[in-house]
Design brief:
Largest sheet: 5 strands, parallel
Number of domains: 2
Helix content: 55-70%
CATH superfamily of the largest domain: Cobalamin-binding domain
Order of helices and strands: HHHHEHEHEHHEHEH
Structural class: alpha/beta
Number of strands: 5
Distance between the termini: 50 Å
CATH class of the largest domain: Alpha Beta
Strand order of the largest sheet: 2-1-3-4-5
Radius of gyration: 18 Å
Shape: globular
Length: 223
Amino acid sequence: MDAAKKEELLKRLSQGVVEFEDDEVKEAAEEWVATGEDTYDAIFDGLVTGMEEVGRLFSAQEYFVPEMLMAADSLYIGLDILKPHMKQRDTNVKGTVVIGTVQGDVHDIGKNIVKMMFDVAGFDVYDLGRDVPLEDFLKKQLETKSDIVCLSAMMTTTMMGMPKVIEMIKEKNPNCKILIGGAPITDDVAGKFGADGTAKDASNALEEAVKMVVALKDLQKNS
C-alpha cells in the first residue's frame, strides 16, 4: 500500500470514530484488510487516534456520554474487522496479567485496548471486565499468581478505590507489580497510591509491563 492510500485510510478510520460514521469505519477497515497489510497501524494510528480525539472533546465538554458511547460503537466495529488480522508482536518477554476497571466504573474502552496490546504481545491475560469488586482483583491475582495487576478508572471518584486494592495485593504478594491507568491518573497519583507505574496509552502500558516482568524475573534469579 502506498503512503497516500495509507494516510487516506487512517484518516477515514480516525474521523469515522470521531463522527460516529459506522459504515465509513467498516468500509475503511475492510479496504485495509484487503491490502493484506498488518492491521496494527490501522488500529492504533486510525481507530485509537480517533478515540483519543473523542476523549479530548469529552474533556472540553464538547462531547458528552452519548457521543462517547456512539464513538465507542464505531471503534468496536473497526476492531472486530481489523483485530483478527493483526500480527503477533514478539516482546521476548512473557508474563501473566490480571486487568479490570475498578468498582463503580463502567468505562472499559481504554482497558479493552490495553488488553488487546497484551494479547498481541503474547501475555496471558485474565480480564475481569468492568465495575469489578475491589477484592476480586486480589482473589484473581492469588489464583493466577499473575506478575502484574492492571487497574483502570475513568473517574476521580472511582479511582479512589485503587489504593485499597494496591494495599491488599501488596500485603499478600509484595512482588506483584501494579500498573494503573485512566483519564484522571498521573504519575503523581500513581506514586501516592503506591502503584508501580502508570501509562498514558496502550503502547506505553505494554512497554511498562515488559519492564516490570523483566524486573520480576531478575529478582527471582537473584533471590
